[in-house]
Task: structure prediction
Amino acid sequence: MIKVQLHIHIKGDPIDRIPYNWKTLIDHAHEKNFRVLSFTCHKHIVFPLKAKKYAQSLGILLIKGIEIEIRKKHVIILNPTKQAEHIRTFKDLKKYKAAHPQILIMAPHPFHPGPVSLKKNLEKHIDLFDALEFSFYYTGLKNPNLKTQALAKKQGLPLIGTSDCHILKYFNHTYTTIETTEPLTTKNLIKAIKENKVQIHTTSLSNIEATKIVLTLLIRKLRKLLPVV
Result:
């Protein structure tokens, strides 16, 4: 079983203000014994070749990823081509998936509060998704992942634990281990996920931690919009 994080944002993300760069992220992941990472920045594929080579030197497989928006709802695609940046509708996504069987489509934080979560759109278009995300952001009192878990079980879909990393402190809070065959390649990894050879490892946030995360991300967003803040 190998440790993986498949929902990560880094400096250079077109939407979010992220303070750490790809090298800091990879070094941190290496310290925590991760073997597979995917940078899933918003709207654009951010995949520096230097980052891929550096990760490889540490025994880490870095795979391409992107978090696209369909009618302002977030969808993650792993192992995408550049064409994925131009997907605008679920019809586009369906055509893209049919033409690119090597990809994996995951629903991020599908039932979490906020306008970017898929919510009812997920069940309406469930045939497009290969996996659902179990997000790190939950507490013992409120856990939107429970609805995601129930849907994953009902549909027989794998559930992938992620950090949706914006803050390095929580990188190891929720992650997935995957049973995959050697060699460690993108193709073998995606195959293992689709075969549901996955296991989630997670710890809930305290209410104080959850509040601090929201405030931290809000302050970053304000600083991005108003650099003088």
